[in-house]
Prior knowledge:
- By secondary structure, this protein is α/β, with parallel strands linked by helices.
- It contains nine helices and nine strands.
- The protein has two domains: 1-18 and 65-105 and 152-228, TPP-binding domain (Rossmann fold, 3-Layer(aba) Sandwich), CATH 3.40.50; 20-62 and 109-144, SIR2/SIRT2 'Small Domain' (2-Layer Sandwich), CATH 3.30.1600.
- Helices cover 33% and strands 19% of the residues.
Amino acid sequence: MRPITILTGAGISAESGIATFRDPGGIWAQYDIEDVATPQAFARNPELVFDFYNMRREKVRGAKPNAAHHALGRLQKSWPGPVHIITQNVDDLHEKGGAKVIHMHGQHSTALCAACGHRWPAPPAMDLHDPCPDCRQPATRPDVVWFGEMPYHMERIGEILERTALFVSIGTSGAVYPAAGFVRLARAAGAETLELNLEPSEITPLFDTSRHGPATELVPAWVEEVVA
């Protein structure tokens, strides 16, 4: 059975109460990227960065997966071929919805040692002076990919896109690379492409088909079509 590859962005979690980043009133309308989401920001004011991610982690901890998350979990379990879900999101709502995903931008649920690379479950509130459980260095940082850093798992993602037969983008703005370029890679490999988004994105013209509306309506309906 043909492989399916799915890319998800902030739009799939918006209906679970997780704010998107680029929409009016979104996170980047309230915070300056340069203050909380770059390596330079962390070097300049780590306390502010920790406060920001502790706030985001607390928000995520109380969120529940919505119908779109559950539908993708169902698809992954019922489709006889591989279903790879790549997410730009750092929440754990896909996992709560029953899916296994590739987190290309990291996760709120883990902490990272900048000294040795060790990862461990993040406490509810992380602190600048938390020691790494492995090397004991006080080099704790959020396990998220900041602007200017290389996303995780890019080699594996490239291999997946080369082999996919269907590429589906869900809830993404099409503004952030390299994820915004995945549709081009999938098309070059001969895949069919589909966009499911609240409204047209910056890359809508690149897709064979686009459907627009709430993720909690579009995604379950599409999954039912696929598994029927």
